Amino acid sequence: MAFGRGSKMDGRRPSSSSSSFCTTTTVVVFVALCLVGAWMMTSSTVFPLEVSSNKKPVVKQQPAPVNFGASEGAASGNAGEGSRKFEDTDNNDTTVPELNNKEAPEEEKFTENTMEKPEEKPEEKEPEPPKEREETKDMFDDANGKSEGRSDDVKNDDDGDKSEEKKDDEITNENGDEKPDGEKKDDQEEKSEGDATQEEQPQIEEKMEENGEKEQTSNSNEVFPDGAQSELLKESNTQNGSFPTQAAESKNEKEVQASSKSSGDETSYSWKLCSSSASTDYIPCLDNEKAIKKLRTTKHYEHRERHCPEEPPTCLVPLPEGYKRPIEWPKSRDKVWYSNVPHTKLAEYKGHQNWVKVSGDYLLFPGGGTQFKNGALHYIDTIQQALPDIAWGKRSRVILDVGCGVASFGGYMFDRDVLTMSFAPKDEHEAQVQFALERGIPAISAVMGTKRLPYPSSVFDAIHCARCRVPWHIEGGMLLLELNRLLRPGGYFIWSATPVYQKLPEDVEIWNAMSTLTKSMCWKMVIKTKDKLNQVGMVIYQKPMDNNCYEKRSENNPPLCKESDAADAAWNVPLEACMHKLPVGPTVRGAKWPESWPQRLEKTPFWINGSQVGVYGKPANEDFEADNAHWKRVVSKSYLNGMGIDWSKVRNVMDMRAVYGGFAAALKDQKVWVMNIVPIDSPDTLPIIYERGLFGMYHDWCESFSTYPRTYDLLHADHLFSKLKKRCKLMAVFAEVDRVLRPQGKLIIRDTADTINKLESMAKSLQWEVRMTYTKGNEGLLCVEKSMWRAKEVEAST
Questions:
Q1: Residue 468 lies inside a defined structural domain of this protein
Q2: How many structural domains compose the chain?
Q3: Threshold 0.85, pTM exceeds
Q4: Are the C-beta atoms of residues 695 and 421 closer than 8 Å to each other?
Q5: Compositional bias (Basic and acidic residues) spans (predicted)?
C-alpha cells in the first residue's frame, strides 16, 4: 500500500526478516481495520434503523391544512346574507385595493405549501407550527366566522394538493415499512454526485430559501449509497414534502379550465352581431321567428307572446345609424331623436290623433291619444273630477295601463305623482313601446293572450284601458278575469271605449255583454260619464272588498277558482276563466287599503310581522326595516356621491334583483323610475314592493327581458350573477345586459369577488369603461359604463 511504501522509504536501509514480518503484520492489521470500518459505515445505509445515536428520529407532524370555506352568495332565507348585506362596505375608512383572483390564489397556495416543509435533521426538536398560517386564516374570517378570502376554484386546488400530499407521505423503505421523515431526508442527502436524483437537491434548497428557511447541506464524512440503492431511492423514496408536483399542478389547472369552459365562463370572450331580421330592435323572446312559424294557431295572439330561443343568444344588437345620447327628462316626454327610433309608420297612422309626429331630427309627442286628442292631462283630470275618491297620487299610486300606445297617459301621470305600468304588444303599431321608453316612460312589450301577466295578485290600485282593443267579454270573460286577479280589492277599472258612448249595433252588443259580465263578477259600476272636450265617454267599475257578493250570486258564473289555485303564480301560467276569493281576516294581505302615498313607502306592510322569517333571516318586520335603512345609506353615501354618476342624465332604472324595493325607495327624490325585478327563483317579495307604492314584475334572467334594446340608463344587480351562474351562462346574461342598457349607461354590481372579476373581464372585452371596482374579503362592488361606439366597432370587425 502507499502507506507501507512510504514507511519503507523513510528507513533508507535494508530490512531484516523480523522487521519485514512486523511491517507485513502491521499492513495486514491496518487493512483489516479499514475493511471493518468501511463495512460498519456501509451497514448503516443497508440497515437504516440501526444508528449509533441513542435518539430516535423525530417524525414531524404536518399542520392540518386550513380549509377555506367556499364563497357564499346572498342566498334567499340565509341569515348570513343579511349580515353581509346590511354591513355597508362604503362606510369603511380603509379602501381595499382590487384583488386579482387569477394570481392571488396561486400565491396563497404556494405560501401555504412551503410553510409545511419538515426539518432536515431527525435529531432536531420538532419546530413550532408556522404562525403565518394562523394569521392567514384570521385574515379571511369575517364577523360571522366564515372564511371569505378564497373562491370555490381555489378550494378545489387545495383539495387536490392535500390528496397529493397524502400520497407523498406514504413513502416506504425496501422492506415495505413506512420510513420516518428524518430518514427520508438523510436518504436524499446521501446520494452521490453522479446520481441523477442528486439533481433535485438544489431545487429543494432554492424553494426553501424563497420561504426564508435555510436548507441543511450534507456532511463531508457522509458515505453515499451505491448505484442500486440510489435507484431505489429515486423511484420510491423521493420526498416531495409540502410542494405539489408539476404534474399535479398541471392536471388540476387543466381540470379547472375545462370546467370553466364547460360552464361558459371563459376568460376570453368573442362577440358577434345578432343576425335577426329585427336588426337594431331585436327582442330575442319576441322575435323568435322559428318558434312562431311552428305555432298551430294565432287566435289568442300566441304569436305576440314570449317564445324564447332554446339557447340564450350571446350576440350583440347593433346601434341604429346616427344614434345619439337620449334627450333628458322631462324634455324627452315631448320629443326624442328620430335617429334613435327611426320609425315613421305610427306617425302616419296615428298622427291625426296626436300620438306622434315627425319634425326634422325629432319625433314629437303632443301628449294625445285615441281617447284624449286634446292632451292626456285634461283626460286624467276628467277622471279625477268624475270620481274624487280615486285620489290620484294619494289613494291611487300604482296603476296598470293596458294597450298603452306610446304611453302618454302614463307619462303625464307623473305630474299627479302616479306610477304607471304600461304595456302593449309588439305588433303593427310599430315600436310603440320603444317610443315610450325612449321618452323616459315605463313600459314593457306584452299581450293579453293565453297566459297570466307577470305580476302578483291584488297589487294595482287602478287599471286603465283607453281603446285598448281587448275583447273583454268573450270566452267567459277570461281576459277581464285576469284584470280582476291583478286589481286590488276596492280598486277601480277605468274603461274608455266606443261601446261606452256610441250606439252602433256592434258597440251596443259589446256594452250589453260587458254589463252582464261585470255584474256577475260583482264589480260595481261607480260612474259613467263623458268628456265633452274630447267627445268620448268612460265608465269606472270598482272591485268588491269582501266575499259577500260572491256568496249571494244565484249562479256560479264565472266560477270561483279552486282553493289550490295560487293567485300570485304568474310565470308562464295559463289563463283560467275563474275568480279568486278575496282575503279574509284583518292580517291577510289585501284585507285593507295601503297607507296613502308617500307614507306607504316607508311603512312596514300591516301583514308583515315578527312571527314570519324575512329574506335575510331576521323577523320579517325587522328584515324590512333593516333593508330599507341599508339601501338609504348605500345610495346616499355611495351611489349618489361616490361613483361619479351624473343623475340628471339617468331616467330609466332597473333593479335586476329587488328584494323589498329598498334600492328604488332610496331614489325617491331623484327624477327616475325603477323597474323592480323579482327573479322567479327568489323569494316572492313583489307584493311588498307594490304595497310600498312601487312597481315591478317577475322575470327569469336566463331568458331575455321583454323590452327593446337600449331602453335603460342604469341597471343595478345585488348578488344576482353569482346565483345565475348556477343555472345559466353568464356570457348570455351579460349579452342581455348589453342589449338592454343604453350606450353610456351604467351597470352597478354588488356580488362575490370572483363573480365581480369575471364580469369586469366581460365588460372590458366589450370596451366598457370601469368606473369603480372595490373588493373586501369575498365581497365586491363594480360600476361600469357601456361604450357608445362598441357595437359600431364590432360591426366593422365582422
A1: yes
A2: 1
A3: no
A4: yes
A5: 100-154, 163-194, 204-216
